C-alpha cells in the first residue's frame, strides 16, 4: 500500500512548514468560497491544477488520474444547480428539470470552485504527513499537546482497528445469520460490526492514554522536541508561490476572460 | 518525573512505624468498581520495601493489577475509581510496563516513541539520541538505526521497547503488569532477561500469571499470594511459599511450578478408557471446576469404564484396524493444499489427514503461517489443491460466502479473541445464535442451550452480556458457541492464550470431552505441554509449510487413547499395563 | 480517611477523553470514507439520493457525545472524523475539515442547550439537525444553494435533516446503548458520589 501512495520525490511544498501550508490552504479555501467571478474561478482551478502537477512530488500519470477524477467532482457538484437552479432565460425544460442560462453558468462556477478546492486540498494533503502536521501544530501553533498526541496515537492505532474489522468480517461470515431483512436487519448488521470495534477502540484508547500519562505526559506544554519544527527559506518560497499563483489567476481572469460575468450571484 | 507529588500525603513515609523507607505502601485500602457489588479490596494494608523484588500472585480478578495501580498512584490520579485509604506512600520515581505491547505506544517510530518520554521530561534535544541508544542496549534491543517503525517489531521486541521507554523515566520502582502474558515462549524469556538486566538497585513489583521463566531467572525474592476478593493469603520467599501454600495455589487455579505435571498426570488418568488409579495425584486435583462450573462438574470428571466404551466414538470406528494407525474414515484430508494471500502462497500442506477422535496441536513460531492455515481451511483465504471434508470436495480457488458456509457446516471455529466472534447480547442468545439457524424447534434450542450453559460452566450467567464476563468465562462461551453445533471438526486458535491455570485446564478438559464424543480437535498453541502431552498428534507449521509430526506419546496406541477402536477387554488391559509406566 | 477528590472537580477533557474521542471518530471516518467511495461511484445525478445518507457524516459528533457525555467532545469528534479525509489524501480533505467545524458546532450547541445532561435519542436527533444546519451555512456561499428552485432547496435539505435525525440521532443512540451494554463505557465516565459512598458498605 505504501509504495503506490508515497510521493516519489520531495518538492519545496514537502519541505515547507505544515502550519504555514495549513494556514495558506485555509486562506485559499476562503478565497475560493468567496470568489463570485467565474473567470477568476476558472483560472484558480487551472493554476492550482498546474501547481499540483509541479509540486505534489508524485509521478505525472498518478496526478493525471487524480485530475481526471476531478471531472466527476465537477459533474457531481455542478449538476444540481444546472438542472434545478432558479433562472429566467429558459434553455430547456423536461418535467422538473429546468435548465436556464443563469443556473447553467452558476453550475459551471460551482463545479470550478469544487475543482479548485480539490486541487488545493490535494496539494496540502499529498505533501503533508499527519504526524508532521501535528508536531508542527503543537510547536508552532500552540495546539495543546494532549490534542496533538491524541491524534498521533489514534492514527497509530487505526491499522489495528482495520485488522479487527477484517477478523470480525470473517467471524460473521463463519457464523452466518442475517435473519432480519429491511431497515431492521440493516441496523442489526451495523450493530454487529460496530459494537466490537467501538468497544475495543474505547478500551485501547483508554489504555494508551493511561500508558502515556504514566510516562509523565501532562498534556499541557513545556516540552522539548526531538524533531523541532522550524520555519525555513522554503516557507518564504511557498508563501510567495501561493501568492503568485493567486495573482496569476487574478491577472489571467482579467486579461483573458472566458465568461465575462462580474458576479455570478447577480447574473 | 516523580509520581504525583502534589497528591502525596504530607510526611506519609515518616509516620510509618516500620523500619526503613518503603518503596510503596498503602494502609486500610478500600476499593470498589462502580456498579459492582463486591469490594476489590476491603481494608488492605500492603507495604513494599526498597530494593525488594516482589511477585504478586493470585487468581484472575483478585485485584493484583489494581493494587499495582494503587501503589503507583495511577489510581486514582489517572484512572478514576472509587477508593480510599488512611495512609499512602508513593514511589518517588516509577514506571509501569503493561500487558499489551500494542497499547503502550503513541508514536509510529521507535525514536519518536522514546523521544516522547524524554520530551515529557524536558530533556534537552542533544541528549536524547545517546539516552535512547543506552536504554535500548540495556534491554537487549539493538537496532541498526533508531528511526524504525514500531509495527515491524515482534511482540516480544515491542515489549522490550516499552521497557526501554520506561527506563527513560529513571524509575526507582518498576511495576510490571503481566508483561509476558501476551508473548510467545521466546518472547517471555527475553523480556524477563531484560528485566533482570535492569533490576539492580531498583524495586520490582510484578504481577504475572506465567511465572516459569521469571522463577527460572530467580528474579523475585518475595511472593505475595492473594485470594479472591483481594485477601492477602500469605507471603514469603518463592520456594517456601510454593511449598506451604500448595493447596491454595491449586484451589484457586494459579500457575505455579509443577502445575502442568500435576495436571497432565491427572488428565491422563482421568481420560483413560478405564479408570485405574495411577497413584498419588488423587488428593489435590489439578482438574477442577472453574468458577460457576459446579452444576456441570460431572461432565469433566473422569468418564468411567462403561461410559468410555459406549462413547459414540467407539461405535463409529471399525474395530480391528492395525493398532497405531488411525481407523475409520478421515474427516479432513489435505493433499498438496495451498492457501494464498494476495495471490502469493502462504501455506502448503503436502499431505495431512484428520480423523475423528484426533486431538491435534498445531505449533510453530509466530508468522510461520498458522493463521493462514486456519483461514484457508475455513475458506476465508483462497486455496487450491485437494481439500476434502467428511468426504465432500471443498477445494476452490474463488472466495465465496457460500463456500465458507459449506465449510462452517463441518468445522467449528473458535477465534483467538472471543469478543470478535460474539454476536449475542446475552450469554444464552450467544449460544443459541447458530442453533437457531439449523435446529427446528425452539424447545430443542433452549434445551441444548441449557445443556451447554451447564457443561461450559456458564449456568446462572444466561442474562449477562458476553462482554461482561471474566476472561475465562468469555473463552468458555466462545468454545460453547462453536461446540454446541457438534461439528465433526473444531478449530481453536490459541484458546489458552493469556488464561490462568484453572481456565486453561478447563478448556483442555472440554476439548477432550468433545474429542471423546467423536469430534476432531485442531488446536493452534504455543504451549509445549499441550503439544507434547495432551494432544494425540502434532502438526508443525514452519515457513509456510505444514508438517505432520505424527502421533505424540499419548496418541500412540499403547496409551490406549488415540485409538479407542482397540478398546476391548484385551486392548484395555494392555493399555492399562502400559499406562502405569508412562 | 483520605477520600479521593472527585472527578467533578477536575474540569475539562482528560487525555483519555480526547484520545477515545479521536480514535472512535477516526474509526467512524474510515468506515464512512470507504462506504462513500463505493457509493460515490454511481453518482445519482437526477435525484439527490446521497442526501439520504448525508446524516451519516454527523454520527461521530452525536455517538461520541452519547458515549463520553462531556462538553466539547461532539465538536472534536466531528473534526477528527473529517481528518480521515486528509489522512487518505482525499480531494475533499481541507474542505471537509472546515465544514466539520461548523457541523460539530451545530451538534455541540444543541447538547449545550440541554446543559449536556440529556442523552436521549431525541436530543441526539436534534443535534443531528444542528449539524445539518451547520453544513447549510457554507453551502450558501459555496453552492449558492439559495438559488435553487425553492422545492429543490426544501427537498435537498429536508432529506438531509431527516437523514441526520435517523443516523446521527436514532442510530447513534442505538449504537451507544449497545456499546453501553458491554460495560466498556464505565472506563470513560466519571465516578459518581454514589459509587464513592458505596465504599462504606
Question: What is Rg of chain B?
Answer: 26 Å
Taken from the alpha-carbon principal axes, the silhouette of chain B is globular
Tally of extended strands of chain A?
2
Total number of β-strand segments of chain B? 20
- Which stretches of chain A are low in confidence, meaning pLDDT under 50 for 5 or more residues running? none
Give me the number of helical elements of chain A. 10
Tell me which oligomeric state these chains represent: heterotrimer
What is the helical fraction of chain B, as a range of percent?
Answer: 25-40%
Approximate strand percentage of chain A: under 5%
Question: How far is the first residue's CA from the last residue's CA of chain A?
Answer: 47 Å
Strand order of the largest sheet of chain A: 1-2
Domains of chain B, number: 2
- pLDDT < 50 stretches of chain B: 1-18, 274-284, 289-325, 558-582
Mean pLDDT across the residues of chain B is 82
Describe the overall structure:
The complex is a heterotrimer of chains A (267), B (582) and C (201). Chain A is mostly helical and 267 residues long. Chain A has two domains: 2-133 and 232-266, no CATH class; 145-213, no CATH class. Chain A contains ten helices and two strands; from the N terminus they run αααααββααααα. Chain A has a two-stranded antiparallel sheet with strand order 1-2. In chain A, β1 and β2 (97-100) form a beta hairpin. The radius of gyration of chain A is 24 Å and the shape is flat. The two termini of chain A are 47 Å apart. The mean pLDDT of chain A is 90. By secondary structure, chain B is of the alpha/beta class. Chain B has two domains: 22-259, P-loop containing nucleotide triphosphate hydrolases (Rossmann fold, 3-Layer(aba) Sandwich), CATH 3.40.50; 332-555, 3-Layer(aba) Sandwich (Rossmann fold), CATH 3.40.50.300. Chain B is 35% helix and 20% strand. Chain B is built from 22 helices and 20 strands. In chain B, the strands form three sheets. In chain B, strands 15-14-11-12-20-19-13-18-17-16 form a ten-stranded mixed β-sheet, sandwiched between helices. A six-stranded mixed β-sheet of chain B has the order 6-7-8-3-9-10, sandwiched between helices. In chain B, strands 1, 2, 4 and 5 form a four-stranded antiparallel β-sheet that branches. In chain B, α4 packs across α5 (125-138). Chain B is globular and about 70 Å long. Chain B starts with 11 loop residues before the first helix and ends with a helix. Residues 1-18, 274-284, 289-325 and 558-582 of chain B have low confidence and may be disordered. Chain C is mainly alpha-helical. Chain C has one domain. In chain C, α3 (73-87) runs antiparallel to α4 (93-113) and α4 crosses α5 (121-142). Chain C is globular, with a radius of gyration of 18 Å. The model of chain C is unreliable at 1-9 (pLDDT under 50). The chains are: A mainly alpha (267), B alpha/beta (582), C mainly alpha (201). Chains in contact: A-B, A-C, B-C.
Amino acid at each position: 500500500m505504501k509504495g503506490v501512495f508515497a510521493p516519489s520525490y520531495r518538492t519545496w511544498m514537502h519541505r515547507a512548514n505544515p502550519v504555514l501550508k495549513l494556514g495558506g490552504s485555509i486562506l485559499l479555501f476562503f478565497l475560493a468560497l468567496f470568489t463570485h467571478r467565474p473567470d477568476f474561478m476558472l483560472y484558480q482551478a487551472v493554476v492550482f491544477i498546474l501547481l499540483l502537477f509541479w509540486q505534489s512530488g508524485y509521478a505525472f500519470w498518478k496526478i493525471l488520474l487524480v485530475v481526471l477524477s476531478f471531472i466527476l467532482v465537477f459533474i457531481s457538484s455542478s449538476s444540481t444547480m444546472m438542472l434545478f437552479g432558479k433562472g429566467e432565460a429558459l434553455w430547456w425544460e423536461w418535467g422538473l428539470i429546468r435548465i436556464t442560462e443563469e443556473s447553467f453558468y452558476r453550475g459551471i462556477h460551482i463545479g470550478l470552485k469544487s475543482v479548485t478546492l480539490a486541487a488545493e486540498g490535494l496539494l496540502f494533503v499529498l505533501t503533508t504527513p499527519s504526524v508532521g502536521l501535528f508536531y508542527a501544530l503543537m510547536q508552532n501553533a500552540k495546539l495543546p499537546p494532549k490534542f496533538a498526541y491524541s491524534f498521533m496515537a489514534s492514527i497509530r492505532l487505526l491499522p489495528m482497528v482495520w485488522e479487527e474489522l477484517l477478523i470480525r468480517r470473517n467471524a460473521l461470515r463463519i457464523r452466518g445469520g442475517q435473519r432480519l431483512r429491511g431497515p431492521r436487519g440493516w441496523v442489526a448488521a451495523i450493530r454487529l460490526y460496530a459494537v466490537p470495534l467501538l468497544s475495543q477502540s474505547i478500551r485501547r484508547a483508554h489504555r494508551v492514554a493511561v500508558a502515556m500519562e504514566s510516562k509523565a505526559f501532562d498534556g499541557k506544554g513545556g516540552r522539548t522536541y526531538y524533531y523541532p519544527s522550524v520555519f525555513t527559506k522554503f516557507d518564504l518560497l511557498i508563501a510567495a508561490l501561493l501568492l503568485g499563483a493567486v495573482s496569476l489567476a487574478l491577472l489571467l481572469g482579467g486579461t483573458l476572460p472566458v465568461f465575462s460575468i462580474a458576479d455570478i450571484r447577480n447574473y | 518525573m516523580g509520581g504525583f507529588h502534589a497528591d502525596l500525603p504530607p510526611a506519609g513515609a515518616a509516620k510509618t512505624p516500620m523500619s526503613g523507607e518503603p518503596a510503596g505502601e498503602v494502609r486500610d485500602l478500600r476499593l470498589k468498581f462502580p456498579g459492582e457489588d463486591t469490594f476489590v479490596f476491603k481494608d488492605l494494608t500492603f507495604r513494599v520495601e526498597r530494593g525488594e523484588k516482589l511477585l504478586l500472585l493470585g487468581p484472575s480478578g483478585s485485584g493484583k493489577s489494581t493494587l499495582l495501580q494503587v501503589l503507583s498512584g495511577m489510581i486514582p490520579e489517572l484512572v478514576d475509581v472509587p477508593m480510599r485509604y488512611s495512609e499512602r506512600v508513593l514511589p518517588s520515581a516509577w514506571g509501569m510496563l503493561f500487558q499489551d505491547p500494542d497499547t503502550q505506544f503513541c508514536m509510529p517510530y521507535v525514536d519518536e516513541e522514546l523521544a516522547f518520554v524524554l520530551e515529557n521530561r524536558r530533556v534537552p534535544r542533544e541528549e536524547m539520541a545517546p539516552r535512547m541508544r543506552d536504554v535500548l542496549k540495556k534491554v537487549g534491543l539493538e537496532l541498526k538505526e533508531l528511526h524504525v517503525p514500531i509495527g515491524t517489531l515482534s511482540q516480544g521486541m515491542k515489549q522490550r521497547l516499552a521497557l526501554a521507554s520506561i527506563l527513560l523515566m529513571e524509575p526507582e520502582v518498576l511495576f510490571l503488569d503481566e508483561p509476558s502474558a501476551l508473548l510467545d515462549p521466546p518472547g517471555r524469556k527475553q523480556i524477563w532477561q531484560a528485566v533482570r538486566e535492569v533490576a539492580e538497585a531498583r524495586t520490582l513489583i510484578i504481577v504475572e500469571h506465567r511465572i516459569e521463566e521469571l522463577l527460572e531467572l530467580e528474579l523475585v525474592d518475595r511472593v505475595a499470594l492473594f485470594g479472591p476478593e483481594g485477601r492477602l493469603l500469605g507471603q514469603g520467599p518463592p520456594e517456601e511459599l510454593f511449598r506451604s501454600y500448595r493447596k491454595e495455589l491449586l484451589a484457586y487455579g494459579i500457575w505455579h511450578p509443577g502445575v502442568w505435571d500435576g495436571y497432565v498426570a491427572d488428565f491422563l488418568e482421568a481420560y483413560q478408557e478405564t479408570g485405574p488409579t495411577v497413584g498419588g495425584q488423587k488428593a489435590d486435583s489439578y482438574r477442577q471446576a472453574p468458577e460457576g462450573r459446579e452444576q456441570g462438574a460431572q461432565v469433566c470428571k473422569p468418564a468411567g469404564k462403561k461410559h468410555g466404551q459406549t462413547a459414540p466414538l467407539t461405535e463409529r470406528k471399525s474395530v480391528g484396524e492395525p493398532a497405531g494407525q488411525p481407523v475409520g474414515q478421515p474427516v479432513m484430508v489435505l493433499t498438496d493444499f495451498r492457501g494464498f494471500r494476495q495471490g502469493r502462497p502462504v501455506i502448503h500442506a503436502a499431505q495431512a489427514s484428520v480423523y475423528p477422535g484426533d486431538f491435534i496441536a498445531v505449533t510453530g513460531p509466530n508468522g510461520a503461517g498458522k493463521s493462514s492455515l486456519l483461514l484457508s481451511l475455513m475458506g476465508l483465504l483462497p486455496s487450491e489443491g485437494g481439500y476434502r471434508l467428511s468426504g465432500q470436495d471443498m477445494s476452490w480457488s474463488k472466495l465465496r460466502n457460500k463456500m465458507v458456509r459449506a465449510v462452517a457446516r463441518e468445522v467449528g471455529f473458535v477465534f483467538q479473541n472471543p469478543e470478535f466472534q460474539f454476536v449475542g447480547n446475552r450469554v444464552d442468545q450467544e449460544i443459541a445464535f447458530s442453533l437457531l439457524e439449523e435446529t427446528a424447534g425452539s424447545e430443542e434450542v433452549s434445551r441444548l442451550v441449557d445443556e451447554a450453559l451447564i457443561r461450559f460452566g456458564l449456568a446462572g450467567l444466561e442474562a449477562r452480556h458476553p462482554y461482561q464476563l471474566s476472561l475465562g468465562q468469555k473463552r468458555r462461551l466462545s468454545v460453547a458457541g462453536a461446540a454446541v453445533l457438534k461439528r465433526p471438526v473444531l478449530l481453536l486458535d490459541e484458546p489458552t492464550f493469556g488464561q490462568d491455570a484453572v481456565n486453561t485446564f478447563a478448556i483442555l478438559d472440554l476439548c477432550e470431552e468433545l474429542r471423546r464424543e467423536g469430534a476432531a480437535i485442531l488446536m493452534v498453541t504455543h504451549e509445549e505441554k499441550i503439544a507434547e502431552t495432551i494432544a494425540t498428534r502434532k502438526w508443525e507449521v514452519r515457513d509456510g509449510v505444514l508438517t505432520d509430526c505424527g502421533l505424540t506419546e499419548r496418541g500412540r496406541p499403547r496409551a490406549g487413547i488415540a485409538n479407542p477402536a482397540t478398546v476391548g477387554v484385551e486392548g484395555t488391559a494392555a493399555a492399562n499395563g502400559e499406562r502405569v509406566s508412562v | 480517611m483520605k477520600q479521593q477528590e472527585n472527578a467533578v472537580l477536575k474540569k475539562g477533557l482528560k487525555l483519555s477523553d480526547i484520545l477515545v474521542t479521536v480514535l472512535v471518530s477516526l474509526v467512524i471516518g474510515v468506515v464512512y470514507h470507504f462506504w462513500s467511495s463505493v457509493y460515490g461511484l454511481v453518482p445519482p445525478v437526477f435525484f439527490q439520493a446521497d442526501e439520504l445518507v448525508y446524516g451519516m457524516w454527523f454520527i461521530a459528533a452525536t455517538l461520541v457525545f452519547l458515549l463520553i457525555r462531556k462538553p466539547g467532545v461532539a465538536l472534536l469528534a466531528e473534526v477528527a472524523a473529517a481528518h480521515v479525509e486528509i489522512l487518505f489524501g482525499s480531494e475533499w480533505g481541507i474542505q471537509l475539515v472546515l465544514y466539520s467545524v461548523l457541523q460539530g458546532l451545530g451538534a455541540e450547541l444543541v447538547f449545550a442547550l440541554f446543559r449536556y445532561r440529556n442523552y436521549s435519542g431525541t436530543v441526539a436527533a436534534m443535534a443531528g439537525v444542528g449539524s445539518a444546519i451547520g453544513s447549510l451555512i457554507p453551502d450558501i456561499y459555496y453552492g449558492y444553494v439559495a438559488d435553487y428552485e425553492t422545492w429543490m432547496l426544501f427537498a435537498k435539505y429536508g432529506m438531509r435533516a431527516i437523514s441526520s435525525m435517523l443516523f446521527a440521532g436514532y442510530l447513534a443512540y442505538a449504537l451507544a446503548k449497545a456499546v453501553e451494554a458491554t460495560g466498556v463505557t464505565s472506563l470513560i465516565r466519571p465516578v459518581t458520589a454514589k459509587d464513592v459512598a458505596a465504599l462504606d458498605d
